[in-house]
Structures are given as structure tokens and as C-alpha cells.
Amino acid sequence: MKETIYLTIIDQFSNWAADFGSACSKGCNPCCTQNITITALEGERILNFVMTHGMEGWLAEKLQEPQRADRPRMTTNEFAHACLTGREADGGENGTIAPCPFLEDHACRIYPVRPFACRCFISTVRCSRAQPARIAAHYLTAATAMMQLIEHLGQKEYWGNMTDVLPALCDISVYRPIAERLDDPTRIMQARLRTLTARPLPGFLFSDEEEERLRPLLRAIFATPLDGRTVEDILNGR
Length: 238
What we know:
- With about 240 residues, this protein is mostly helical.
- The strands form three sheets. A three-stranded antiparallel β-sheet has the order 1-4-5. Strands 2-3 form a two-stranded antiparallel ribbon. It has a two-stranded antiparallel sheet with strand order 6-7.
């Protein structure tokens, strides 16, 4: 059920965002860095893909490369809650430009199951280190709202940098074939200590004007029927 809702969120966002246009193409990868956060559900999708394709050894090798991503101080929903309640919000420095370890020949090796944080990052101009990405402000607001929903879906589970959540999940028995290939068995414990816990949605961070623009997207997601209920009912525990 959780994966079905996750796929609903990313599919509806993709449909909503189709008119924005994108200059991105295969081989264009300045945005593919270690600065990617994921939920446990997204991590499990990656690990299942890796095991289905016999890539356990490859992933274990990648997970043991030196970590250059900063640990976030807050999850997206923790940050939103702090903003909404007037408290100081400090998500921490997480601006590493170290390349993503899953890039090979300028392409993503796990592209079919790439997390939402990768899927949503686009630019209307061809970007580079000298030319930053460019996109409408309300697109970024919508992408943040989707990240909040995805975190809400995975609440009470791991949340953090992709290179920490993946090894942390390797402690689950089904992913032992990957864990057994790690040269340093302490990597799993180190990763678990660097993760945070996904939090429920405290509310969205958008203005009344942005809400008007995003209403069709949110309505499409929340109204999707699943097993006699809507996604909104399921997310609200009804």
C-alpha cells in the first residue's frame, strides 16, 4: 500500500510538472551529487532493484566509498514544523557537490528507482557549475510539498542521506546478501547513527497564491482511490 501511494505521488507530480519543460537529458549530471535525502521506502526500492539485478557486490563497494555528504540536522517535516510554529529552523549545511556514487559514464545506474529528490530536480536551462539550475518558484514549492508527503508516508522509519539510509537498511535480513559483501561491518551501525526519523506532515509551506496553483496537484493525489478509500483517507489514518 505504501509503495502504491508513493508511486501515485510521483506519477501525479510528473503529470502536473509536464508543462514546465526541462533542458535535462541523459549525460547531463551536475545535479547528481551526494546531497540526496530519501526515506526508508525509497531505500528499499533501490535495494530490491539491486538484488533483482544481481548488483549486490557493486552496491556494497559503492557504500564503502568515503562519505562526503553532510548529515542533515532536520527532516523536511521537522523543518516545516519549526517554521510553522515560529521556532528557529536550521536544516544544517548539506550542499556537497561530491558526485553521486551511483553515476557511471555520466548516467544513473539505478535510474528506474531513483528517489523523488532526484526525479524532481530539473532546470529550464542547461546547467553547469557556472550556470545554476533555473526553475519557477512554485515548482520548487510543489516539489517540497511532495517531499513532505513522502516523508509522512514513511514516518517513524529511517530518513536521511541516501548513502546512509541504504547501508542502515542492510541490517534487515532480506538485504543480508549486500551486508555480507561490506568489508567494514561497522558501516551499517555508523549509517544508522547518521540517519534521522521521518516525521508526520505538520502542514505545508506555501502561500495562499501558491496554494491556488498547487491545488489541482494535491487534489489529484488525495482523491486517488485505493481499496475503497482515497489516498487522503489513508494518509490521515481513516
